[in-house]
Amino acid sequence: MFDIGFPELLVIGVVTLLVIGPEQLPSTMRAIALWIGRMRRSFSEIRRDIEQGIGADEIRQQLHNEAILKEIERSKAALAQTQADIDSLAKKASEAMTLDDVRPAEPTKHEQRSNEP
After folding, report:
1. Would you say residue 49 lies in a domain?
2. Does the global pTM surpass 0.70?
3. What is the pLDDT of residues 66-109, one digit of tens each?
4. Which residues are CB-neighbours of 17 under 8 A, at least 6 positions away?
5. How far apart are CA 37 and CA 43, in angstroms?
6. How many domains are contained in the chain?
7. What span, in angstroms and rounded, lies between the C-alpha atoms of 90 and 103?
8. Looking at CB atoms within 10 Å, which of 1, 48, 100, 111 has the fewest?
């Protein structure tokens, strides 16, 4: 976020040591750490209040449910397509079987010889 490297931190530490002094440095660092902790807690409380206010949990749950419903619809469409393919194949097979029953059988070679004069 701030892109501060080790050399920058070292410079900040040396300047702080010179300005504050070695006697008050531990108590100053403790106070800074306490303030940082308080700020983090405050920000997390504010974030939680905002999320509760806008109903972020409900929105996340609704988005999740919508994604699941879309997946179910895709599955239904795939099943319907598969069913249509199966019905089509069954109809073709049934028609083929019906045509074989209606079509006269071709005479065998033996029948052809016996019918010749």
Report:
1. yes
2. no
3. 999 999 999 999 999 999 999 999 998 888 888 666 555 566 66
4. 25
5. 10
6. 2
7. 20
8. 1
